[in-house]
Amino acid sequence: MQKSINGATFRKMVVNGAKLLDAHKAHVNELNVFPVPDGDTGTNMSMTMLSASREVASCSTNNMPELCDAVSKGALRGARGNSGVILSQILKGMTSVLAGSTELTAKTFAKAFAAGTEVAYKAVTKPKEGTILSVIRAVSEAADKAAKKNVELKDFFATVIAAGEEMLKQTPEMLPVLKKAGVVDAGGRGLLILFQGFLNVLLGQEEAYNMEFDDAFKAGGATTPYDEQAHFSYNDLAEIEFAYCTEFFIVNLYKKTTEADIDKFREKLMEIGDCVLVIGDLSLVKVHVHSNVPGQVLTYALELGELDHLKIENMLQQNRALKSKQQEELKPFGLVAVCAGDGLTAIFKDLLVDNIIEGGQTMNPSADDIAKACDAVAAKDVFVFPNNKNIILAANQAKALSKRTIHVIPTTNIPQGLSAVLSFNPEDTVDGNLKNMNDALGGVRSGSVTYAVRNTQIGNFDLKEGDIIGMDAKDIVAKGDSVSAVTEQLIDRMMDDDVNCISLYFGNDVKEEEANAIAADITKKYRSCDVDVHYGGQPLYYFIVSLE
Questions:
Q1: How far lies 444's CA from each of 458, 495, 521, 532, in Å?
Q2: Residue 345 region, left (φ>0) first, then alpha (ψ -120 to 50), else beta?
Q3: For 136, 325, 367, 524, which has the most beta carbons within 10 A of its beta carbon?
Q4: pTM score, two decimals?
């Protein structure tokens, strides 16, 4: 059982964490929804860690004081953007504790996480929950509890990472901008990737590999209307209050400069800007600030010492460039579909539908929801598949609300939607696709199996609450006590000699083995037809049935 590690293993953890973070920086970048294009979170955090890793690589000893000093100074020197600077402070706090031990145990790391949390919170002038700070706090709290048990280090790290993941899932509820975009916090994800790199060394997995993430925020179990592509829109330049991102080091501080002078300098910056980070000591100070008067920032800094590695970026210009690039990179066509159920969502995505709107029977999306979903697709012309007759009108109204050119394919059910999507040809014209997709609607028959919600009389059926019922596109055509019997009756009513393919999409109240058993019975009955079974995950409906 490995309950402690030495400096040599810690060196490997730092290097491997930096490597894994660098391999996944693009994913972290995609989560970045802060309304100012202040660099990319994944890139900034990766460059911070790569700088720390280089310092560690050049360190000629595995003694913990020297290694920790290399990590701390390397991270600070390489820190970029808010996320990178905060990460450097987490590492500064951690290494201040780790440096005092030759053998690192779970208790040592627990104290280090606590110190990292404290230093990071102090470094931020206005700490916000729902960010990397919340994640490191959750990690620290879990570490304190886990360290009290006699566990191996790999189990300890697995526990604290799991706690961090749970907090990460909560970040959209803490920050409205994350909830609106439908993603978790980018900095928090980057931090957990780093810690996973630490854990991988303990597991003997030091090769970088592709991690899988489920970082789309789901409200009430359903993906938000904006889904994965609807990251923050940069269309409103007025949201950028402070135009210039200014970063630099203050080096060779004057002998007369005191810690109090550094604190006063920080206070001055808070009066003329935001996102203020002033960290370090009398040997080196790292400065990051957003301001409209970068010259004034530099003047204040020159009162303390010399300036080095100066960087001033015009965020308004970055914003304009992003808008221009976004407009230039619009593809010809996009696809947006409405459906309910994670299985159906996955099927539409496998068919290259760009955006999915959660909705259907009993939960119809509004015209505004549909328009926003279309706007989130980087395409000039967007085809919308309502997949429900009650949503078609709202889809047509969305045309007046969207900046895209919307074309509504009047699909009234899921099988029609799937058939229409399969008829889409990216090489064809708008008119050609409209014709092909509308023609496809007539080639599929749809039915569904659900239950009666009240006692009533419909046609020839005397229904009682809870009865299993089968419906074709227009009427109730089957009734019974079991899902399997009603499903078979429904297919019998819909069947004719033209049908050669039967598809069953089972809902979240049906087990896969039950669906396969029903499909086997149908296969025996209709030997000339191909019978396919797919997980739909839809609520309310035991089965959605498609006959083609």
A1: 25, 12, 22, 15
A2: alpha
A3: 136
A4: 0.55
